[in-house]
Design goal:
Length: about 425
């Protein structure tokens, strides 16, 4: 058995339906996190909020997501992804309700935090599920499917969501989202009996394996063990750096400022800006497909990570230059697409790399510990760019081209510097931390 893979559940029926329900939950995870790019900057201008305040409110999703991530991974390993996701979607529905009805910053902040807490376990649960349910050599393929559908949520949360808000209003749209979120949670709860992660735990128990109790002390020990493993494994540490920076940069443009940056640069309408900003999400989806089909074997994982990461850095340089010089908008849109595509490809192979390196039966905990760091990257990126934008807000409260150029110039510099971590990426045929 490969490191990080779980014994697959023996079943007369494939687990595709259960898998797709979890992937649908990941769709909502991306939808809610990226929806801030449509809702918050506009409300910020209407309510007179500074860019740094907007960035802070948006990043509350990722504060909650990051701090809950390790516990979410352990919950998935203990109770199974389907039950944990069902409960989490109920919490996320409360957050969506708060976002839809908010009349103050407190309501928006509560909504972002609740959705972050509720959706924290979805990704780690989905990858743990696919590791348990499907053959190891198909892991990268299913990771690509997972990210593809998730990023479809990001696409829907920009231009389509913006159009829906203009037509029906924030409260009506989010009321509908609450209903859909709760319905998906109910479907997951109804089928939780076919969870292969739970089946594995039962098999281990029948073989006399010791079951670790789920209490505060055991959670802390397992979390500390996972973090220690990541910190002492050079390849995992390098993956953390690459993932934290690339995802933080991506969500800063895709999840918050992309629409406003396009408007400030090209003085285009909100509808047009949303369409061009959506090219980032479309690119991520294309990259997910590419990542799932290219260099699937572990022996070619390093090549895939290095190539996609360097391509991502080059795409960021292209996007920033296009915005700075106000090159034709179609060329800048191509840069948006390439940033998304290279990021999407890289994320698929980083995920598979973690699966290759994590010890058997601890994939959820290790992935949860690692998944804290990309969220911290988003917090720094969204709040930090907001602080830079504060200094360049126009007299009318509008965002300026020059301040965006400065803010995302800093983002580009960090992306370029992070490529040094590629030197620590080695082979993935066997775990570097020992067996």
């Amino acid at each position: 058995m490969q490191p990080g893979t779980l014994p697959r559940r023996s079943t007369s029926r494939p687990l595709y339906m259960e898998y797709m329900l979890l992937v649908a939950a990941f769709f909502f995870s991306f939808f809610y996190r990226v929806s801030a790019s449509v809702i918050l900057p506009q409300l910020g201008q209407e309510w007179g909020l500074s860019p740094s305040s907007v960035g802070f409110v948006s990043s509350l999703y990722f504060y909650a997501y990051a701090l809950s991530q390790p516990i979410g991974g352990l919950l998935n390993d203990t109770f199974g992804p389907m039950l944990v996701a069902a409960v989490g979607l109920g919490v996320a529905a409360l957050g969506a309700l708060s976002l839809g009805m908010a009349q103050s910053v407190i309501g928006l902040a509560a909504g972002r935090m609740l959705t972050g807490i509720g959706l924290t376990s979805i990704l780690s649960g989905t990858v743990a599920f696919q590791a348990a349910a499907f053959p190891p050599d198909r892991y990268a393929f299913f990771s690509g499917v997972t990210y593809f559908v998730g990023n479809l949520g990001a696409v829907v949360s920009v231009a389509p969501l913006g159009s829906a808000l203009e037509r029906w209003g924030r409260s009506s749209v989010f009321a509908g989202l609450v209903v859909l979120t709760l319905a998906l949670g109910a479907a997951l709860m109804a089928r939780r009996g076919r969870d292969p992660v739970v089946a594995r735990r039962r098999t281990d128990a029948s073989r006399g394996a010791e079951r670790v109790p789920m209490n505060a002390a055991s959670v802390f020990r397992q979390l500390a063990s996972a973090i220690r493993l990541v910190a002492t494994t050079p390849q995992l540490a390098a993956i953390v750096v690459l993932w934290m920076v690339s995802y933080g940069a991506l969500m800063t443009v895709q999840g918050l400022w992309g629409v406003q940056w396009c408007q400030a640069t090209y003085h285009t309408s909100a509808t047009s800006a949303r369409l061009w900003a959506t090219m980032v999400s479309v690119g991520v989806m294309a990259g997910n497909v590419t990542g799932s089909l290219v260099a699937a074997p572990a022996s070619r994982r390093r090549q895939a990570i290095v190539t996609s990461s360097l391509t991502c850095a080059a795409a960021w340089a292209m996007l920033w230059t296009g915005m700075l010089l106000r090159l034709p908008i179609w060329l800048t849109g191509l840069g948006c697409f390439l940033v998304g595509a290279s990021s999407g490809t890289c994320f698929v192979h980083l995920t598979a790399g973690v699966n290759n390196l994590a010890p058997a039966g601890k994939g959820g905990a290790v992935f949860g510990a690692i998944n804290m760091m990309p969220s911290l990257g988003v917090i720094v990126g969204q709040w930090g760019t907001g602080i830079v934008l504060d200094a360049g807000v126009g007299a009318d409260g509008a965002y300026t081209h020059a301040s965006f150029a400065l803010a995302f110039g800093a983002v580009l510099a960090v992306v370029l510097a992070s490529q040094l971590a590629l030197a620590r990426i080695k082979g993935f045929d066997a775990p570097s931390h020992g067996r």
